[in-house]
Sequence to fold (199 residues):
Amino acid sequence: MVKKDIYEHLADIYLDASSKKKKTKNAKLHLKTFKNLFFISITIIFFLTTLLMLMFKDKYVFTSLRGGKPIGSELALVLEPDIVRINFNFDPVKEEIYSVNLNGLDLVKFKALGFSVRKANYNDNVILKVEFTDNLKRKSEIYLNDIPAFKWRGYKIGFGEFKDINDWSGILSLAFIVEERNIKQKRGVVYLDNIRFLR
Fold:
């Protein structure tokens, strides 16, 4: 072999070994970058999940995000988790009713009724009647006259407010009523949300 050939052969071996080292080094660098990005992603997901849990820990299930005060850790029996719409048009009817048939439900272990409410028309002075009927067909009602427009207001009404019912072991129905005599406008809408019984 000529000297020149030997040098070329040694140069080829060196360059080949050098390029293999670079490839191995690059592969290790890519693997390390991938691991770092993976751990950063997991950390961000964990952080965001924890943040969301802390933000909403008191909100759902027992109160709506659309309105009402958080109930916290109170236990509830949710009757209607979706928004209920009471359309009233007092021509010729005299009242509009949204009623929940409770079939003699035993509410002895519960202490209060909770729900959120709002009206559609700002100028309307809506008074909402909330009425329970027990298994002896006795009715007891209260009136709410500070219904807000456009934003939700949460109510928590203790069963003691319904004076004419003493035995809560057999309740037939719960009704929300808009009466013509308690309203200025002849037409409008009242919305109810997240109706529930609270312990």
